[in-house]
Amino acid sequence: MVSRRPVKGLPDLADAAPDGVVLIILNEARSRVLLNREFRPAVGKVVYNFPAGLIDAGETAEQAAARELREETGLALCGHLATYGRSYGSVGLSNESAAVYVGLADADVPFGGNADPAEEIEPVWVSRAQAAEIIQSGAVTARVQLFLALWGTGVLG
Fold it and tell me: How far is it, in rounded angstroms, from Cα 111 to Cα 46?
């Protein structure tokens, strides 16, 4: 098992604040969703993922969402839709958890940010029409695949 924090017993596994934040960002018309195309060494290829990152000490999930969005894409949040508590990404391997932040950003602003040379990240706006193609590509995280399946078919509105 992999953990971002010391684990001495069962309470340490389950009773911690989220380690990070996952961002589901829509354009203001809600016709496109922001994804990152990023190289992930664990699978040896570029995959579609939501912008995400760790929550720094003393930071709220909302503050981390704004910071991570700016760092990875150069965009600023322009609306908040929802924040969901802790969820797990790979319970068979890790106790790492993340809050999910759903918000809005201006799709007309050019991308910037991502100054970290260790990260290979390309932000992209994806339309509902592109969702099915991305789902079928096999180069997608489970969260993104589920979201695109529901959003792309209109189930999520």
Answer: 19
- C-alpha 9, offset from chain centre: 29
The tokens for 130 are 């592109």
Over residues 61-99, the pLDDT tens digits come to 999 999 999 999 999 999 999 999 888 878 777 778 899
∠ at Cα 74 (65, 103), nearest 5°?
Answer: 35
Confidence of residue 115 (pLDDT cuts 50, 70, 90): low
Dihedral of alpha carbons 56, 58, 61, 64, sign: negative
Q: What integer pLDDT is reported at residue 2 of this predicted model?
A: 75
Contact in structure between 2 and 94 (CB atoms under 8 Å):
yes
Q: Rounded distance, CA 102 to CA 126, Å?
A: 16
How many other CB atoms are there within 10 angstroms of residue 4's CB atom? Answer: 13
Please give the structure tokens belonging to residue 90.
């790979």
Q: Are strands 121-127 and 20-27 parallel, antiparallel or unpaired?
A: unpaired
